[in-house]
Design goal:
alpha+beta; 5-stranded mixed sheet; 5 helices; 32% strand; binds magnesium ion
Length: 157
């Protein structure tokens, strides 16, 4: 049995926060606001995996009202979700994700993000693809108010 899932996430940009995407700490004057490390890319990947396996969503598994998840590294959550799928008999075939960010330029960090996601899930790097687009200077992405991410996951049982 093969299943597909999609995920989406958006976090607000704010001063005084770190910018972490796909587990990579990216130097920038703004970071993402959130209860965890606010890694929007990893959150979208988590939701794609959970959706594909019909195991709920990130908010249900890791509620942002739970102090246990304050400031937590989202790559740890991704590894837990990978283990959850594995215990339910699912194998991840591939992940494809798109980052939506006006600034900073994310291209130089993409190979590192792909590697980090692959490592967290025990996959090969060629099973994980991350792409990046700007917001064409319009809307919440283009005006640098937020960074968002979309992800798809294909899994097999
Ligand atoms: Mg999130």
């Amino acid at each position: 049995m093969i299943r597909i899932g999609n995920g989406y996430d958006l976090h607000r940009l704010s001063p005084g926060r770190e910018l972490i995407l796909g587990g990579v700490n990216i130097p920038h004057e703004l970071g993402l606001l959130g209860h965890s490390d606010a890694d929007a890319l990893t959150h979208a990947v988590i939701d794609a995996l959970l959706g594909a396996a019909k195991l709920g969503d990130i908010g249900r598994l890791f509620p942002d009202t739970d102090p246990a998840y304050r400031g937590i590294c989202s790559m740890d959550l991704l590894a837990r979700v990978g283990a959850l799928l594995k215990s339910a008999g699912w194998t991840v075939l591939n992940i494809d994700a798109t980052l939506l960010a006006q600034r900073p330029k994310l291209a130089p960090y993409i190979p590192q993000m792909e590697r980090a996601i692959a490592v967290a899930l025990g996959l090969n790097e060629d099973q994980v693809s991350v792409k990046a687009k700007t917001g064409e200077q319009v809307g919440v992405i283009g005006q640098e108010q937020a960074i968002a991410a979309l992800a798809s996951a294909l899994i097999e049982q």
